[in-house]
Amino acid sequence: MVTKLKRQYGSGLEANTYLGQNYLVLDPSITHEVLQILRDEEQFDYCVDVTAVHYPSREKQFELVWILYSFERNERIRVKTMIADGATFPSSVAIWPTANWLEREIFDMFGVSFDGHPDLKRILLPDGWRGYPLRKDYGIIQQDQEWVQINLGIESGQ
Q1: 111 φ, ψ (degrees, to nearest 5)
Q2: pTM
Q3: Termini Cα distance of the chain
Q4: What are the tens digits of pLDDT across the range 130-142?
């Protein structure tokens, strides 16, 4: 599979294994296409998770990670790509409907937007919440205290 993908995408694709876990690191320009191929041709028919990691000191601050599973092959693979703060990424909901709420969680917690998502809005936090709590530079205690005071009219327990 990796040989075939490398032939097709060349240097935009890097394949590694860490502690028995296989993963691909992809250039953002090919990631959506490769995700489609993994489902259609390589039988990774279940999207276990989509998440993000924030690295504030990097030029491309966000690493998007898909964890995929193939029932046919009994195999997992992770797919990673890096995007800059403020960049959007194509939604994978059309590939795996389970990505719907997972992408909403990334939007809610990290502020990453997904183009073509059918209902991209907050899923865990109230609509008026400012900021994105899973970013490493986010001041959660200050935000919680402000939100509780404004919306509940009490002092926060933080």
Answers
A1: 85, 15
A2: 0.88
A3: 50
A4: 889 999 988 777 7
